[in-house]
Automatic annotation (TrEMBL):
It comes from Salix koriyanagi. It is found in: Membrane. The keyword Transmembrane helix applies. The chain crosses the membrane at residues 35-56, 72-90, 129-146, 152-170, 182-201, 213-235, 247-268, 274-293. This is Sugar phosphate transporter domain-containing protein. GO terms for cellular component: membrane.
Length: 359
């Protein structure tokens, strides 16, 4: 149990540290150095991530595990589309409405997990999430300007993001693959869709051409640094969702928002008001309550069902990089069990693809 908890704590810390670092790096790159091509930059992140994992696999740092190609392609394309839709949502909406879009991901994830995965959330956990969302809303949401296209893009972004994160958790558990193995298999598809669509999306949003941009040495250095940090961001994202849950990952994401606001004030001298301070404090209270209630619920479940404790023990022996392979026919059987779940969201894939491919 202790080694499993250490693994979870390590994944959470790596996710927070790497995400805050890349936000500060990208903010300097885009705001101070004038490199606005976020979607294209994300495709470079994924290419570097795949190359790093490929090198690690060749050095036997983890064992590659084949996953059904249809599952991996749908999963990779969905994640790529969700990133692009979030970028388009930011382009068509005010910053305040974009922040509301991100806040809506948690309740929508809870709804999807309740309806499709029959997961139960206690009233205390729901209350703590409400406190958290209220705090982040106070701290980060300013203006709310609505328009039809922006609202549609935001709804599609919420749906694809929630489904993608739920599938990240579901695939790892049902197919018995590690976060590293899943990221290694899906990164090429995410990178491909963003690499092809990124320049068009960025040109549409910024009216600038990424290929005509004059790359100075300092811009190139920040791009390389951003790509290096992104390896940790992508790896820790899959690891956190696999070891915890999509809702916990979103809660962690709002902790990052509070930290970014604080670091932006201290390091980049961004404006900071009493409203930001109150919002951050309320959000931290909500995170604390969520963590406490989750621990209490887990203890109750383990005491009520001793088999859960043995499952946790099995996870103790799971290395962070890689998982032991089971027999091929077992993996195929599990994959087939997952495909109906993927198919139920094909409509979301199709609609998202029509409205854009992207970051």
């Amino acid at each position: 149990m202790s080694s499993f908890r250490l693994g979870v704590i390590g994944a959470l810390f790596l996710s927070v540290a790497s995400s805050v670092s890349i936000v500060i790096c990208n903010k300097a790159l885009m705001s101070n150095l004038g490199f606005p091509f976020a979607t294209t930059l994300t495709s470079w992140h994924l290419i570097v991530t795949f190359c790093t994992l490929h090198a690690a696999q060749r050095f036997h740092l983890f064992e590659s595990k084949s996953i059904d190609m249809k599952t991996v392609m749908l999963f990779g394309i969905l994640n790529g589309v969700s990133i692009g839709l979030l970028n388009l949502s930011l382009g068509f909406n005010s910053i305040g409405f974009y922040q509301m879009t991100k806040l809506a991901i948690i309740p929508f994830t809870v709804l999807l997990e309740t309806l499709f995965l029959k997961k139960q959330f206690s009233q205390k956990i729901k209350l703590s999430l409400l406190v958290l969302l209220g705090g982040v809303g106070i701290a980060s949401v300013t203006d709310l300007q609505l328009n039809f296209v922006g609202t549609v893009l935001s709804l599609l972004a919420i749906m694809t993001t929630c489904v993608g994160q739920i599938l990240t958790n579901t695939i790892q558990k049902r197919l018995n693959v590690s976060s590293t193995q899943l990221l290694y298999q899906s990164a090429p598809f995410q990178a491909a869709i963003l690499f092809v669509s990124g320049p068009f999306v960025d040109h549409f949003l910024t009216k600038k051409n990424v290929f005509a941009y004059k790359y100075s040495s300092i811009v190139s250095a920040f791009i390389i640094l951003s790509c290096i940090i992104s390896v940790s961001v992508n790896f820790s994202t899959f690891m956190v969702i696999g070891k915890t849950s999509p809702v916990t990952y979103q809660v962690l994401g709002h902790l990052k928002t509070c930290l970014v606001l604080a670091f932006g004030y201290t390091l980049l001298h961004d404006p900071f008001t009493i409203r930001n301070i109150i919002g951050i404090l309320v959000a931290i209270l909500g995170m604390g309550l969520y963590s406490y209630f989750c621990v209490q619920d887990n203890k109750k479940k383990q005491s009520a069902d001793p088999s859960l404790a043995s499952q946790m023990k099995d996870k103790e022996n799971t290395p962070i990089l890689g998982m032991p392979d089971k027999e091929a026919h077992e993996a195929k059987k599990s994959t087939k069990a997952l495909l109906p779940f993927c198919s139920s969201f094909k409509l979301v894939h199709y609609i998202s693809a029509l409205h854009l491919r992207t970051l």
